[in-house]
Every structure is written in structure tokens, then in C-alpha cells.
């Protein structure tokens, strides 16, 4: 309780309260900078291990994979970008078939707000993947995919979109 009072930032985009499990187990808001104290040291170690050129290639690849994901989202029915990505964060909504013909109105966004938490719960229970979601201002919950792993490839990103559709198509 003391740690939470001292370090809590109340970052609702990181610590959603509408999860299917007891959110008191989320420890991130109980530590300095969400338990990310040694970030600079980890970056320095990676830089020393892979070198400047490889680090640059990794950044370029992350940006290319994020761009690919955004292009796929634009092509697929039921997916919609929140905003054109400017770095490796790709924010998007999944719109299940039952909502695709609903006119753009407050009722649509109210229903859409409940989609991401249900799909996330299904992801976690199935063990297929874990992608965060958040709301921003008056925008309904959306998925926030950060594409930074050097191992991620196009097939992985296709799987992400296929899996979200598979987990949410009945909503």
C-alpha cells in the first residue's frame, strides 16, 4: 500500500481496471517507473553486444514490421487503425462482424469499448498471445501492438490479426 501511494502514476493505459482477474496482482504501479529502473543499463548492454550497425538494422526492421502491420490492418475487414503509426506502436480496433454495419455513432463506440477486454481475456486463457489494449481520451479501447522484437516476421504479424479475428468473431 505504501509503495503504491509513493509510486503510483495511475497510468490507465497500462493498468486497466476492467480485467477478468483481480487487478491488485498487477505490481507495476507499485514501483518506480513501472519496475523499469535499469532501462538505460539494458540498452547499453544490448548496444555493446550487437554494435551500432546491428542496432540500427534492428530499429529499421522494427519500423518496417510496424509499417507492414499497419498496411495489413488497412486491408482487412474488421480492423481499423486508430492513427497512422509514427514508430513501432500500432494502435488499432478490431470490429467484430456483429458491429461492422452499425453506423458510426456513440452506441457503436460503447459496444466496441467492450471488445478488446474480452478478446484479451480469451488470448490469455488460450495462451496464444498477449497484446495490450487501452483507451485514450474519449476513444474506445483499442489494441496497442509494439513491434520491436528482432525475431518478429510477417507471418507472426499475420497470426496476430488472424488470432484476434478468431477470438473475437462471435462478439
TrEMBL record:
UniProtKB keywords: Decarboxylase, Lyase, Pyridoxal phosphate
Domain of life: Eukaryota
Co-factor requirement: pyridoxal 5'-phosphate
SUPFAM superfamilies: PLP-dependent transferases (SSF53383)
Entry annotated with the keyword Kinase: no
Record bears the keyword Nucleotidyltransferase: no
Assigned protein family: Belongs to the group II decarboxylase family.
Assembly description: Homodimer.
Protein name as annotated: Acidic amino acid decarboxylase gadl1
Top-level taxonomy: Eukaryota, Metazoa, Chordata, Craniata, Vertebrata
